[in-house]
Amino acid sequence: MSSNFSFLYLFLLFLPFISLAKQDTNLITQAKTITKPNCQSKCGNLTVPYPFGIGIGTSCSISPWFDVNCNTSFNPPKPFISTINIEILEIKDNTLLTKNTSIRKYSRDPERFRFSAIPRGLQRFNATISSLNAHVRVSSFSSCGYAFLGDPERFRFSAGDLSDPGFQNRTVDNVPLVLDWAIGTRNCSEARNSGDFACLQSSVCVDSETGLGGYRCSCSEGYQGNPYLSPGCTDINECENNPCDENGICTNTPGGFRCACKKGYVGNGIKDERGCTAVNSQFPVIKFSLGISFGFLAVIIAVTVMYFSIKKRKIMQLREKFFQQNGGVLLKQQISSNETNMKSTKIFTAVELEKATNNYAEDRILGRGGYGTVYKGILHDQQVVAIKKSRVMDQSQIEQFINEVVILAQVNHRNVVKILGCCLETEVPMLVYEYVSNGTLYHHIHNNGGMPWFSWDSRLRIATEAAGALAYLHSAAAMPVIHRDVKSPNILLDEYYTAKISDFGASRLVPVDQTQISTLVQGTLGYLDPEYFHTGQLTDKSDVYSFGVVLA
């Protein structure tokens, strides 16, 4: 009973110390470039790849920690890590195998070589074996007590091992200890910034899994070679082993390959996958259906493009027609002949003003009057303007309209709203003025009469400014202008409450050799001059009468 119980305890104790790591079988020794030039590559039966190097104090290794002492007193010679004097049985791409006796030496100096795939960062290993229930007679139990670390691929446990007196020696000789090795003590990120990074082209850096720092290099997928030696890893020509189907054509690519089926075959071309299959000789229903579908779609797209192209051309032709009938040619001639005085006047396109007013949105309306609607517009250069869209235009008055635009473009008075240009591409021409931000005098009279700024002094100043602007239009402009619709809604106030005469939709030019002209009566009842109303004879006194109503 006691013997069986002791065996069970030993078996449970033994298992945790067997390394569970499965090491990468891709040996560095498979690389085409093994060592640095003029360096020995083999010690006895072991090939020693760089970053390890045979010789002490030579440049054959990456650092003294990787110097290999090839002891020729043995036959065949045996390699040892010179810094810790442990025998090397095998070198892999991130581990090396050593005799189990080396654990006694290694546990005192673990700088670059650490136990593999057990608790991270383990630097020391010490096993204590005792009996259950604190048996005093340990000596009767210890004869079959033995714990060790080793490569699990090299050891298979059997019950007979516990009673075999040669078990320990065979373990030391046949079950190697697995150690991880790494370059330096920095991780990949730190090493890249240090200036002595060891991984060359077409390779990847992998941090050490021990938790004690250091890194190693491996060739990227599809590459082979020694990642520590120039020129680094080189591309594997996968096409040498032809991974493609027998009816496929292999093309090597950096780090991989590409398969394409021969003519008359379809598929991905890769062996053991879809491969290549012969094209069905029967009528290709699916292809035919797809062809018809794509053809029909192409016809729809072509018709749609043609429709919008024709529509766009018609719009352009209509805009050109409006431009011609609204006096565009005449205005261009006037601008050319008066280039000095009209250099700031611009002919806007319909598209520009549509964008500026957000397609004449309701929330952009500044006001409505008898002659049209005024919109707030924002041009592409972020200049804010007022755009007047008139209701109707008498074709017989086109020449006079153009003349008015030309004359008003030359008006330069601080109390007259400046005209910036016009658009002739619409059925009714549109005028573009400077934007005046503080609304109409009418609004302030009837809504802000009690405001502190609207004192009698301010009212007198506004009246004086408006009177000065009318006097300028009547007698100082290049050709006298009669406004014909002077009223408080047509007097605007800017951000400093400066008066500006606006809305010249009903205005008329008066030749310098005349004092009056005969016209159809236009204006606003209540402001309209009675004499002009009865006779139809328009003079500058008509504006004076209307201004008197504004004063009242």
UniProtKB/TrEMBL annotation:
Q: Where is the EGF-like domain?
A: 235-277
Q: Could you tell me which residue ranges the Protein kinase domain spans?
A: 360-552
Leader peptide range in chain numbering: 1-21
Q: Which UniProt keywords apply?
A: ATP-binding, Disulfide bond, EGF-like domain, Glycoprotein, Kinase, Membrane, Nucleotide-binding, Serine/threonine-protein kinase, Signal, Transferase, Transmembrane, Transmembrane helix
Question: Which InterPro entries does this one have?
Answer: EGF, EGF-like_Ca-bd_dom, EGF-type_Asp/Asn_hydroxyl_site, EGF_Ca-bd_CS, Kinase-like_dom_sf, NOTCH1_EGF-like, Prot_kinase_dom, Protein_kinase_ATP_BS
Please list the residues that bind ATP: K389
Q: What is this protein called?
A: Uncharacterized protein
